[in-house]
Amino acid sequence: MDSESFYIVQLFSQGSYRNAIAAYNEHPSPSPLLTLYAARAHLALTPPSPSSATQLLSRIPPTLDARAVGSLARYLAGETDDAVGELEELLAELGEQGLEEGDEVEGRFVRGVVGTVWVLEGEERREEGIEVLREAVELGKDQECLAILSHLYIQMHLPHLSTALLTAPSTTAFTSDSLLSQLLIARSNLATGPASKYQDAYYVFEEIKGMQGGRGEAVLGGVSVAQALLGRWEEARDATNEALEMNPTHPTSLANSAALALHTGKPEAAAQEILARLQAADAAHPLLADLAAKSSLFDDAASRFAPSATA
């Protein structure tokens, strides 16, 4: 892989999807592998762009990986039943393929896509998705599936499992302190603490931010969260504002901004305005779901203590 191609893959791995797409568009002769990464970057945007991904995929042969990414595009476009059916067929067709080590092994992306979609399908397929991802990590030494699995554990409020996975000798034997592995450990450190780990995470995100193309929404989000956990509210706000300047509708950046509002002197009305923007950008965002659940619990508790009418 040439240096320009490696740069695009690195941008994708660190979550700088817009920068990865821009770099791909400037590449004079992108390979099918790079086209797959560009298509996946379009699907990772908020909101995703399945049509752009599908257009890119039409330029390359319909390999197992291209078909898998195409199925993910259809899934995100709302064609869920057809996409799930095709992914089930692809997984059966794949067999043991894609478990060999190497970035350009055919079938390398299939398990990552399948695991992602199975998790999106909900609790009934989540465990199956986790097993698919584990197989890719344990047998195929797949760092991208490692990233998905680590993120999933954190999302399930099981950050200790993420940390155990990332620091296991069987994992560190193939991650070799790569940039992606450093990023994954930094994210786990933000979820677990203590302060020394928050500081370590901050250093990692700051280092990536200083790299060419590194100032993406995801990296700036990591900087913001680390700064907030260290009590540096103004610095956290600045990183979040920079992310919102890049993408005013980025849900994670909006959620961070809402969480920081009251810590940085904004009135409650300003926080509510940010939450309204988040509602418009991603009505299913975990922050909104958490707030709704807490509001419901409060209303339920308040109703039990309401004064009864007296004659």
Automatic annotation (TrEMBL):
<keyword id="KW-0472">Membrane</keyword>
<keyword id="KW-0813">Transport</keyword>
<dbReference type="GO" id="GO:0006891">
    <property type="term" value="P:intra-Golgi vesicle-mediated transport"/>
</dbReference>
<dbReference type="GO" id="GO:0015031">
    <property type="term" value="P:protein transport"/>
</dbReference>
<dbReference type="GO" id="GO:0030126">
    <property type="term" value="C:COPI vesicle coat"/>
</dbReference>
<keyword id="KW-0931">ER-Golgi transport</keyword>
<dbReference type="InterPro" id="IPR006822">
    <property type="entry name" value="Coatomer_esu"/>
</dbReference>
<keyword id="KW-0653">Protein transport</keyword>
<dbReference type="GO" id="GO:0006890">
    <property type="term" value="P:retrograde vesicle-mediated transport, Golgi to endoplasmic reticulum"/>
</dbReference>
<protein>
    <submittedName>
        <fullName>Coatomer epsilon subunit-domain-containing protein</fullName>
    </submittedName>
</protein>
<keyword id="KW-0968">Cytoplasmic vesicle</keyword>
<dbReference type="GO" id="GO:0005198">
    <property type="term" value="F:structural molecule activity"/>
</dbReference>
<keyword id="KW-0333">Golgi apparatus</keyword>
<keyword id="KW-0963">Cytoplasm</keyword>
<comment type="similarity">
    <text>Belongs to the COPE family.</text>
</comment>
<dbReference type="InterPro" id="IPR011990">
    <property type="entry name" value="TPR-like_helical_dom_sf"/>
</dbReference>
<dbReference type="GO" id="GO:0006888">
    <property type="term" value="P:endoplasmic reticulum to Golgi vesicle-mediated transport"/>
</dbReference>
<dbReference type="GO" id="GO:0000139">
    <property type="term" value="C:Golgi membrane"/>
</dbReference>
<dbReference type="Pfam" id="PF04733">
    <property type="entry name" value="Coatomer_E"/>
</dbReference>
